[in-house]
Amino acid sequence: MKIASIYVGTVIGAGFASGREIVDFFAAYGLKGIFGMIISGVLFSVVGSLLLIKMYNNKIDNLSKLSEKVFGRNLSVIFHAIIGFSLYTGYSVMISASGAIFEQELSIAYDIGILFMVISTFIVFLFNLRGLSFVNTILVPLLIVGILFTSIYINIDQASNLSNAEGVSFTGKGNFITSSILYFGSNSLIIIIVFSSLLPLIKDKKTAIVGGTVGGIILFMLGVSILISMLIYYNEIAYLDIPMLKICDHIGKNYRKIYALILWIAVFTTAIANGFGFMNRVSNSRRKLLYTALFCLSSIPLAKLGFANLVGIIYPIFGLIGAGMMLFTLLYL
Predict the structure, then answer these.
(1) Sign, CA torsion 61/144/312/257
(2) pTM above 0.85, yes or no
(3) 94-103, 128-137, 147-156, 214-223, range with the lowest pLDDT
(4) Residue 174: strand, helix, or coil
(5) Domain covering 2-332 in this structure, CATH number
(6) CB-side exposure of 15: number of CA atoms within 13 Å?
């Protein structure tokens, strides 16, 4: 179960808990999005199990060993460059989420929310306060409880009143099938990174299968819970940066504020994890201040595109890249 909980914690981040990912990849298709969620759940279970088995069989215990075995010494440079770019864009998406939370919850300018996150993370990076990133081990269970409580409360009360049952047949991501594959792909890079360090927890193939399967089932259940809530209030939340905050309004103002606070801290710690992961690949200790400042400041123009826009553009791109990387890893590991 420990592997399953790590698996769930890897995928359940700020993007998932905000509801924006679920709207873009599933709710737009109406009830067909539920079939898309089933496809994603199967992929998370089957591919997750296969990847864990591969890690166990080949005794992979770190990302460098994985990249050299799959891509070779020369191509592994490209693999690490893609990982670095995904971490950089991940940081930009998180600071844009901060701007969205400030604007939607506090009615404070979007740019102020971005700057507040940039300054906060800059201080953490500068003083190397890595311990803060482990706050996510507490926040992820809280987010899961919040997601389940919100969704169950709304779904029991309003499940028969879907505002987007029919949905559309095609979007920029194709149909509900291709969209579900892209969603899985958008999570594939981080899954590969995390799974490459789980060897000490994989006692045998059965452990790998159980961990991947249970993790996939839990992700499916959480995803469907949010999706039904999004379908109920789709007309109200379709174009919001943080749909879950609007959903929380139907429970109570105080509950919404609590959820917003937990979500912002999750965004903060995710930004820290992405930032440290990126700078570990490029930084020079003698120029730490310069690299840190450039990293934080250069992410602002990208973040100003808006959280919903970034999720809608960057996540599908990394969905394609991630799906390709996952397929290549399974074939050649």
Answers:
(1) negative
(2) yes
(3) 128-137
(4) strand
(5) 1.20.1740.10
(6) 28
